[in-house]
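Design a sequence for this backbone.
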C-alpha cells in the first residue's frame, strides 16, 4: 500500500501550522498576563469619609493597574484574608481597617513572613482602647508599624506641606523635597517613630503647615510638633508601607465633592512606586503614563500661595521677587524668609 504524498504534505503543513498557532497563543497569553497581582480590602461600612476614600481608591487603582500592567482585585469581606487567597497576590492593600479574626491576622502575618507586600492606609493602623479597633494586636501595631496607639487627629481634613525625609529610599523616587498634599485628616501616634531604628520615615508634616486643622475643637488644631505621615519598616525589605492619607474632605461645603485623595500626581508617586517595587518591578524602568491631574511640586521660583476652595494651590504673588510679602499654606502674608518655598530654596543651595 502506497502513501499519498499530497495527504502527507497536508498533514505536515497542518501540524506545523498548529504548532505555530499554539506558540503564538502562548506568547500572546504571556504578554497579556499581569506582571503582578494586587488585592485591596475595602471593608469600611460606618465612617463616611473612609467609605468615600475606598470608593475613590477602587476607581483609581484599576486605571493604574492598566497603565502599569498589573492586575487589581478588590474585596469587601475579611474572610478573603486567608493563606490560600493571599498566596495568589504579590501586594495586599488594607484601606482604613484591619482584620479582627485571629485566623485572618495569622494569615496576613504569614503572608508577610513569606515575602508578600502590604500597603496600609490611614485607619488601617488605628488602635485605641475601648474602640472597635481595640489594643489587642501587638505584632501589627508594635512590631510591624511600631507606632502603637492612636492619640489624636486634626479636623477638618486640610492640605499640608509634606517634607521628604528620605531622598534615597526607592519608594521616594521622583518626589520633591516639599509638596502640597491632598486634604486629609492627619493622625498622631503614641510612639515617637524617630526612636525606632527599624522604621524609615519617608514623609512628615512640614512646620510651615501650622496651624493645621480648623476645629471646631481646640485639640483638632495642631500648632507645632513632629508628625510622620508615611513610613516603612526596614525589616520587611521594601515590602511594607504605611501612609496616613485615607480620609479626604468628604462633601465639604467648599468642594461639594467626594474624596479627592488620588487627585495629586506627586502624592500618587509614593503609592505607585511602592506598588511596583513590591510587585518586583523597578519604577525607573517602567514606562510612565502621561500626567493626568493638575498637581505640581512647589516650584523653586514660586512666589506664594493662595486659598482656592477647601484646598491651596501655588501661584505667583505680584512683587514677591522684589522682596514683598508671600503667602503661606493658610493664605497669611509672610516675609519671603518665612515662606516654605524659601526654605526649600535655602536647603537646595547648601
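Sequence:
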Amino acid at each position: 500500500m502506497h502513501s499519498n504524498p499530497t495527504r502527507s504534505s497536508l498533514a505536515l503543513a497542518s501540524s506545523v501550522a498548529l504548532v505555530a498557532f499554539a506558540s503564538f497563543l502562548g506568547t500572546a497569553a504571556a504578554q497579556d498576563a499581569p506582571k503582578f497581582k494586587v488585592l485591596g480590602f475595602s471593608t469600611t461600612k460606618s465612617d463616611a469619609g473612609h467609605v468615600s476614600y475606598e470608593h475613590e481608591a477602587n476607581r483609581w487603582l484599576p486605571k493604574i493597574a492598566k497603565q502599569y500592567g498589573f492586575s487589581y482585585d478588590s474585596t469587601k469581606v475579611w474572610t478573603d484574608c486567608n493563606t490560600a487567597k493571599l498566596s495568589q497576590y504579590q501586594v495586599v492593600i488594607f484601606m482604613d481597617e484591619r482584620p479582627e479574626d485571629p485566623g485572618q491576622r495569622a494569615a496576613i502575618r504569614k503572608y508577610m513572613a513569606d515575602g508578600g507586600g502590604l500597603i496600609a492606609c490611614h485607619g488601617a493602623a488605628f488602635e485605641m482602647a475601648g474602640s472597635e479597633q481595640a489594643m489587642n494586636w501587638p505584632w501589627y501595631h508594635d512590631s510591624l508599624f511600631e507606632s502603637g496607639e492612636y492619640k489624636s487627629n486634626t479636623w477638618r481634613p486640610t492640605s499640608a506641606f509634606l517634607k521628604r525625609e528620605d531622598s534615597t529610599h526607592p519608594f521616594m523616587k521622583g518626589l520633591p523635597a516639599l509638596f502640597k498634599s491632598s486634604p486629609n485628616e492627619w493622625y498622631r501616634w503614641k510612639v515617637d517613630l524617630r526612636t525606632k531604628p527599624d522604621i524609615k520615615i519617608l514623609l512628615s508634616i512640614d512646620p510651615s503647615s501650622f496651624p493645621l486643622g480648623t476645629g471646631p475643637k481646640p485639640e483638632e488644631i495642631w500648632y507645632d510638633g513632629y508628625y510622620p505621615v508615611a513610613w516603612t519598616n526596614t525589616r520587611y525589605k521594601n515590602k511594607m508601607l504605611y501612609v496616613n492619607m485615607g480620609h479626604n474632605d468628604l462633601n465639604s461645603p467648599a468642594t461639594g465633592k467626594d474624596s479627592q485623595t488620588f487627585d495629586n500626581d506627586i502624592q500618587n508617586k509614593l503609592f505607585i512606586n511602592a506598588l511596583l517595587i513590591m510587585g518586583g518591578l523597578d519604577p525607573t524602568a517602567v514606562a510612565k503614563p502621561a500626567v493626568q491631574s493638575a498637581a505640581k511640586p512647589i516650584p523653586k521660583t514660586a512666589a506664594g500661595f493662595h486659598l482656592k476652595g477647601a484646598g491651596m494651590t501655588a501661584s505667583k504673588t505680584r512683587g514677591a521677587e522684589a522682596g514683598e510679602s508671600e503667602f503661606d499654606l493658610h493664605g497669611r502674608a509672610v516675609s519671603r524668609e518665612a515662606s516654605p518655598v524659601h526654605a526649600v530654596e535655602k536647603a537646595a543651595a547648601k
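Residues 304-349 form one domain.
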